[in-house]
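[step 3/7] inverse_fold.run input=structure_tokens len=231
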């Protein structure tokens, strides 16, 4: 078994979903700059190729909302990185666009938000739990970060599908963190704040960008939180 010093000397192995824009892209860039081995997931081949070429990270074209894609994501990420120390479940879906009252929300829009924001992170974490637990045993960490939102706590009108799915993800994270204590794996629910991202622009077109956080600032905070959660 590796000692802590030996484990710390080898590059961190990080997987990030939704890695071609906004916070996900900022995280891929931040970890690539640190010399980490990074794999990221996104739905469009063009965006994946562009981000992979820019950062040197391993790109995986897949959709975390699709159950049939999860096993392939887990296999490709763990194989490319030689294991896994950190998983960031960042990919998100707003639900109806434009945002709508719950009474006006189609069932399919709610289902899509739940598939992306809750079931995707649940399935992918389950699929990678063995690799994360092995990382923890080796003294390398084993950290899952689930990206949530203040909409998980505050009942904002028209944010029902997004808020409900993120609330479920938040509670899931806290339960899993308690259950995995014995494995040495941490599961964090992190609200990155209101950021200047394509997702925010979809939700609130024409919002004052100067009033929003830069994704790079939120990424730096998340990187620090992960470092603190690791042994």
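[step 3/7] decode complete -> sequence:
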């Amino acid at each position: 078994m590796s000692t802590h010093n030996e484990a710390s000397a080898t590059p961190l192995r990080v997987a990030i979903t939704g890695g071609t824009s906004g916070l996900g892209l900022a995280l891929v860039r931040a970890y690539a700059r640190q010399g980490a081995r990074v794999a990221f997931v996104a739905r469009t081949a063009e965006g994946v190729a562009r981000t992979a070429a820019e950062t040197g990270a391993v790109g995986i074209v897949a959709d975390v909302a699709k159950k049939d894609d999860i096993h392939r994501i887990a296999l490709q990420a763990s194989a490319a990185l030689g294991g896994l120390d950190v998983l960031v479940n960042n990919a998100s879906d707003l639900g109806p666009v434009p945002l709508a009252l719950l009474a006006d929300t189609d069932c399919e829009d709610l289902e899509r938000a739940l598939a992306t924001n809750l079931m995707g992170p649940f399935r992918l974490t389950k699929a990678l739990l063995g690799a994360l637990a092995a990382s923890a045993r080796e003294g390398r960490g084993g950290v899952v970060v689930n990206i949530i939102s203040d909409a998980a706590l505050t009942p904002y009108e028209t944010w029902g599908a997004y808020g409900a799915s993120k609330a479920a993800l938040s509670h899931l994270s806290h339960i899993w963190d308690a259950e995995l204590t014995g494995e040495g794996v941490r599961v964090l629910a992190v609200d990155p704040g209101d950021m200047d991202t394509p997702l925010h622009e979809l939700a609130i077109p024409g919002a004052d960008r100067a009033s929003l956080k830069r994704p790079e600032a939120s990424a730096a905070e998340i990187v620090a939180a992960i470092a603190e959660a690791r042994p």
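[step 4/7] annotate
The longest strand covers residues 37-42.
The beta strands are 13-17, 37-42, 58-61, 86-89, 143-147, 186-190.
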